[in-house]
Design goal:
Layout: H1 10-13, H2 18-23, H3 29-39, H4 45-55, H5 64-76, E1 80-85, E2 91-95, H6 97-104, H7 106-129, H8 133-151, H9 157-173
Antiparallel strand pairs: 1-2
Length: about 190
Amino acid sequence: MRWFNIELSDEMMGESGIDDMWKKGSLSILQLYVLKSFGEGPKSGYDLLREIKEKTEGHWVPSKGALYPLIKKLEKQGLLHVIERGARGVKKYILTPEGRQELEALPEQTRQVFQKTRWMGRLMDNIYAGMDEEAFDIILKLRYSIMLGLMDENVPNNEVKKIMREAIQELKAMGVRYGQEEEESN
């Protein structure tokens, strides 16, 4: 199978594009994840790189040139604080109270990111899936609903997960497979 490098021009991104969204002060996906991760407890930049590599199964790891300046920027903005300096100057960070406020705003920030990037999912699904328009809409609404449901503190996560597991089991019973064998154990 031949893979293509897909690039989006500035004209394609438009005023509501991702670049414009980030320039206007919204948080990037990396910034959102960094805040969420530091909200779970103290860690170093290296710890964060390893964590992202593990969570994405090595498919995406931000460069040190992207992550470390971001951590420094968040520290300057008063969202992170150094709590300890270890051997060789390794710094461990935690969220400040201001960082906690940003973290608490994550569901809204994430909702905005999903809304502004939803078209990319539609485009990619259309390119690769070959499904009809109604199927695209259902997939996008389902993906969006699941993510918002898991982030909403008023919605029990265990119920959302139960619904997802049941849907997967029903699809498996119909003979539908969804990926590599190791994923089937999830």
